[in-house]
Amino acid sequence: xxxxxxxxxxxxxxxxxxxxxxxxxxxxxxxxxxxxxxxxxxxxxxxxxxxxxxxxxxxxxxxxxxxxxxxxxxxxxxxxxxxxxxxxxxxxxxxxxxxxxxxxxxxxxxxxxxxxxxxxxxxxxxxxxxxxxxxxxxxxxxxxxxxxxxxxxxxxxxxxxxxxxxxxxxxxxxxxxxxxxxxxxxxxxxxxxxxxxxxxxxxxxxxxxxxxxxxxxxxxxxxxxxxxxxxxxxxxxxxxxxxxxxxxxxxxxxxxxxxxxxxxxxxxxxxxxxxxxxxxxxxxxxxxxxxxxxxxxxxxxxxxxxxxxxxxxxxxxxxxxxxxxxxxxxxxxxxxxxxxxxxxxxxxxxxxxxxxxxxxxxxxxxxxxxxxxxxxxxxxxxxxxxxxxxxxxxxxxxxxxxxxxxxxxxxxxxxxxxxxxxxxxxxxxxxxxxxxxxxxxxxxxxxxxxxxxxxxxxxxxxxxxxxxxxxxxxxxxxxxxxxxxxxxxxxxxxxxxxxxxxxxxxxxxxxxxxxxxxxxxxxxxxxxxxxxxxxxxxxxxxxxxxxxxxxxxxxxxxxxxxxxxxxxxxxxxxxxxxxxxxxxxxxxxxxxxxxxxxxxxxxxxxxxxxxxxxxxxxxxxxxxxxxxxxxxxxxxxxxxxxxxxxxxxxxxxxxxxxxxxxxxxxxxxxxxxxxxxxxxxxxxxxxxxxxxxxxxxxxxxxxxxxxxxxxxxxxxxxxxxxxxxxxxxxxxxxxxxxxxxxxxxxxxxxxxxxxxxxxxxxxxxxxxxxxxxxxxxxxxxxxxxxxxxxxxxxxxxxxxxxxxxxxxxxxxxxxxxxxxxxxxxxxxxxxxxxxxxxxxxxxxxxxxxxxxxxxxxxxxxxxxxxxxxxxxxxxxxxxxxxxxxxxxxxxxxxxxxxxxxxxxxxxxxxxxxxxxxxxxxxxxxxxxxxxxxxxxxx
Length: 938
Prior knowledge:
alpha+beta; single chain; 7-stranded parallel sheet; 16 helices
């Protein structure tokens, strides 16, 4: 492999490698404007004919087709025309056609509107997700309808649904075997496996030791917690990855506490569960949150924002790359990262497992396009010359024999959605046949991006970049997970540093490389590679540590600001290195290698830093990690490892840390001084006992509470009360007299505001309590919905039914009921409240007229059918999250996922909304009978 230095132009010598392959693009070295000479017979003719056939499709594209991904256009033409199929016998479009005619696409709009969503549905599309912020609709759409949608003026482009990958490093065979096993395993079998493992974990509680990541010791975060007495108090750590399928298993085993999962964003797979376990090992007292990153790039960006702006996450970490993320400009995901960082979140992202030039593992090349003069096909275009030598030309970059089944991307330095320069990407084999291609049209409104996949098997694969028309631009060609390598027939493999890209390279992100905590990766990245490094466990990292050979290198050269204006800069990426090769309790992640494991290890350290220094800014946290990182490469920032490897003890020694208390007022108890009841009443005084609980790491010294009310006429005595010192884990109480005026109406609310002040950076804390006036009524009123409303399959849009409520006022109690006359597991049963053939796909939420929401059920019940005569009640003995498929049809009283109590605040009168989202494909059902059972006040 060679990293080129640019040389002066121009030589007329063409490197010949094998009699067939290198003349792939054939012809002469004449300028592109002239037709190249006719190729010789044989393989070369076949290659030229195939490229010509592809270019003919491109040149003949209609205005609507020019807005459709080229792979979709070719797939549609091949299916419709036998002549096109005959001309392209070996070409693989990579398009996955489902149910014979439907494809999953991302519809990029100028603006998402209800009209556009309805048009997609009218065209036979099934909407999977809608992002207003990202102006994107993900939908499963018939091939025949693509141009209908693309032809609309409000549609910018229709693309094959953007793909992504995580950075869990696995050997190729294990990865294939796992994919094959999962493809053979039905959804029902996967659900049954999770139920079995959850049951076994509950049976083993207390018998098995909790798994602690080796990264905790290697990064000395165990030492940091012990010496500084910080555990993550008052910090919320959140992850984005594929999914948390086995979350219940980890919780049953005592590996994880409660996790705040965004409703409908549970995802699939278990990398998220493994990442959460790492976060919890490092910062065990921190709150945790999760959302999937795998509903599309726009949804990923939406979830990044939601974790900060809705869920209140202080530290966010992901391990995902979308293949369409530009190296040269911050796209929608990177912009979301910068937005949450600007709001105060500390953001970490995996640097990637795409290798480095230094380790000889890179499949990345970038540099200025160099016109080889070699004509392409019948129509137009010349190939890029990869060889910087002054006496040679090479228009193909060969891949290693093990670079099969990997995505290959091509970008060039034009602004997103404004590329007037048109480049294409071709993959050929050693016989000269075109195996794959990407030749989207760029005429001023498209992005500078092409993407192909290498086949699952094959040899002698090599890539060609063709300038179809336009200026010579700076290029970035990446075989993600592959490697450029000298071929057996004499081609040289050219690679350059800088494969790190996308949102991990955003200014607001801390990009994390990997180094092993303990044992070495157990397999060679490719046969014949040098040995993989080992880690220090049970010791801690030192300057002698070596990075993983697969970790991605930088730096990242950027040409444009987020708005597309010129803003050239070079960003040092990755920023830091952290531990991988650590154990979790999650199946398939024992051990867990890759920058997917390193990023949460670094994020956990940030959680400890913030726990001991709650007022630190993201820039200060970054400076602490970078400033205390141990150099494990050349002195200073390195392309593979950034500033070096981070350790928790060094970071906290640098920042200092104080064990922080976290004292908050808890729900008060009421005793009416007049009649001894538990209620506030007009014209009376009540004794309010207010607990203050300290859930933090340090003592809440000199704690005092100020209790006030903005409710007119309400008086409180005393206004403030001294509680003294509240030790960690302790709860103290104080009493206040609250007088309610006689004019206060029954069913109204007295608002109490408690401000708890104590010595500590987390002080003060504020809590609000809405206390109803009057005695709850025993009269239960029922407001419901009956009908048949289908639940869209595998769509975050879901279905909503509205329940009007009148004449109640403020609620004293609330229960949500899923009705039904006769309970059965029969599919499409008409006598149940919600019929569905896989209840474990469903997420149900209830929203009050004031906008407060509660999650009732969230993908529980696995393969069980139907909900019938179910009552969701905060006082129920068991949580619905504990149900198993054996209990179907699901009946009885259950606690919801999140309490209904917050929905009691304010008037109940108005429209309530019950929403059901089906989060997975292939099972269907309907909402038929649901109701609210409420009581007001006497």
